[in-house]
Amino acid sequence: MTPATLWSILSLLSTVGALAAIEHMLRTRREPRGMMAWILALLFLPGVGLVLYLLIGSVPVQRKVRKRTRRRRAIADSLAHRAHILAEGHDALRSLELDAAQRSLLRLATRVGESVVTRGNDVTIYHDAENVFLAMSLAIQEAVHHVHLEYYIFAPDETGQAMRDLLIRKAKEGVEVRLLIDAVGSWWMSRSFIAPMREAGIKVAWFLPWGVSSRRLSLNFRNHRKIVVIDGRVGFTGSQNVGDEYLGRKKKFGPWRDTHLRLLGPSVAQLQEVFAEDWHFATGEPVVAADYFPEPRAVGQMAVQIVPSGPDRRPNGLHQLLLGAVADATNFVSFLTPYFVPDQAMMLIMQTASLRGVRVRLLVPSKSDHRLILWAGRASYDDLLDAGVEIYEYEHALLHSKVVVVDGRWAMVGSANMDERSFRINFEVTTMLYDADSAHQLQADFDQLQANARRITRADVAAWSYGDRLTAGLARLATPML
């Protein structure tokens, strides 16, 4: 076979594959801008566009979603029973102190978030990675029945090894330990790193393994959640993964800043439910016994809701909650996110809130581990500035926190970024805080960061070089695919 013949065959296969991908998109409900971006990539990047579509653009996960839905149903009765017990005495909607606006938002949250808002919680907010690991390690050391962990990234470095060794010690003491890790986020974790955990009796599972052997080539639909539940009584969740970079030990990015929460009270059972569903999907093992869901106890005054989101749940649920909260704002809204790739709805709600007199502020890092995403966000600066939105870029650390605060009375902290991937594709978990004290703490932290950040003005955008504008334009074109 001559090189010319081989090239002709490959070109034909690429064309057929591109046409098949376009036909698949037309049959599948997709966002129109995303469809157009992928069609252009398939037509004008022969071969490369098809490979990218198979890796990050295709939606062959429906079979996986149906499988996950079936497995959720298999344990739904048990989890529903736990949720009923949880809501019986701790449903925040029964509180007489709520005003009309709060009740409206709680009703929206209960319907869209598919979980109740519970009162009687205690929440500790952390911004320092060392303090997070210290608090988590101390809580794990106190475990007597089980430790459940779920992470997007669990790096086999010094930090990961320290956590692994602690888990091994607890497993040898007879504590049940389960570790669920995303197969793409933690792809570099070796068998030699995992072996000592399994030898000690720790159950380790991968979420949606990727590769030829698993017959799954798409890199989409990752489990981006960060969850730790200890004895069903103590929970940790937020934006911080396990790895040296999150403690600022990698020179490439320097200091790394996250926002993480420690939860006590009824909300921990909701966090446990999320883990139980994910674990059952990955392993088939039901984790629904009463020992994993001890009777909730009120330990504080805070109203909290755990909202899991992903392709197997109500479409755009997290998105709807955020839009509802911003639409309800009367004074200010503060957005803190590392990856800002807003869709049209998010842009409109931010612009509309600003135009009606709400102070809208956006705080993002000035450097990123994903440069294309950084410029995709910058491509929206012009339109936001026109509407009066304040934009700040932080230069002193890589901001990895995902926080929104509305009017100092509502806040969200979690794993979800402000982009289409988090809102529609990845499995995320977000903690909604219907509490003025927590909201004020988060807002105070935001104000401190903003005071040390650089405000972006129209003059700054006008001063962009030709290369900067070209990069922003290309990133904007790729926005639906990010």
Largest sheet: 15 strands, mixed
Provide the low-confidence segments as ranges: none
Class derived from helix and strand content: alpha/beta
Gross geometry: globular
Question: Could you give the order of strands across the largest sheet?
Answer: 4-3-2-5-6-8-1-9-18-16-15-10-12-13-19
- Portion of residues in beta strands equals 15-25%
- List how many beta strands DSSP finds: 19
Radius of gyration: 23 Å
Helix share, percent: 40-55%
Supply the number of helical segments. Answer: 18
* Overall residue-averaged pLDDT value: 85
Oligomer: single chain
Q: Please report the distance between the alpha carbons of the first and last residues.
A: 39 Å
Your description of this structure?
With 482 residues, this protein is α/β, with parallel strands linked by helices. 46% of the residues lie in helices and 19% in strands. α13 crosses α18. It is globular. The model has no long low-confidence stretch (mean pLDDT 85).
